[in-house]
User: Fold this.
Amino acid sequence: MRVAICQIHDASIPLKELEQFNSDIQKLLEPLEAEIQQGVNLKEEDFNKDMSEDNEGTVKELLQRGDNLQQRITDERKREEIKIKQQLLQTKHNALKDLRSQRRKKALEISHQWYQYKRQADDLLKCLDDIEKKLASLPEPRDERKIKEIDRELQKKKEELNAVRRQAEGLSEDGAAMAVEPTQIQLSKRWREIESKFAQFRRLNFAQIHTLREETMVVMTEDMPLEISYVPSTYLTEITHVSQALSEVEQLLNAPDLCAKDFEDLFKQEESLKNIKDSLQQISGRIDIIHNKKTAALQSAMPVERAKLQEALSQLDFQWEKVNRMYKDRQGVPVKHLVGLTLQRTFPMML
Assistant:
């Protein structure tokens, strides 16, 4: 009787380990996928360190745990599940390493412009802080001479702000829009706050002061925080990310095991289609968000930017239809049953 209990206990260990393995691998896949969606677009951290070896140890440890579980589990279906998850993890990790290498190369190429931009932007933020302190220390009654001095200083800083903004636009064109945007938003917000305070001292309406044209901010009520609007470059980046995600799904749909007429491994086919369905559902939500932003983004864009955005949106819609037709062919059921009601709202003519 004691022996039987031990055998049952030993048999339950791989199942518990399998559940933990599945949980751990999913926790790692989520940030890997999020970074893959960044593509080759640079963020600030890409200029600060080489991240090519990040996650290397964790990925290796998980793959080894998977191999160990495969040796100990006799259930062929569970072993196949482990193998598929290992392959998915390895594929995502390799893709991310390649993207990080590309981003690192691009960051090195424009590092001089980046550090110059960061230095000048940080200096400007410090100067704006100093101006704010000067405004706070203005005596009553008003000292017109000091007010004029601050006014001249603000006009000078406006020129520097325009110069920094031009640098940011150049870096954005080189693929660093995501890197420059946080500082640009911070600068725009600080500039608006200081001009608003200065207008109060001059007893002018804020609208009477000529302000820098801002594409990155919208003003809410005084009791609400400033929010980021739809920056054309960032909106284009979002479209690009979704397009890249659709390209990855298209590659999966073109895999040999899904294109063959006779499937040797039905379980693998079923698992692949389930993963693709999940990806399409996620992408559907992201496309909804993009279409909701469309009007505001086009309104804030310059003519050249607007043309790029419209072209990118048309291409995204075409790509979305194409991938869903491919999925329908592989699955053999109507698209509306695969990706839910969101698709009907987004592309009613397609269904």
User: Anything to note?
Assistant: The CA atoms of residues 16 and 22 lie 10 Å apart.
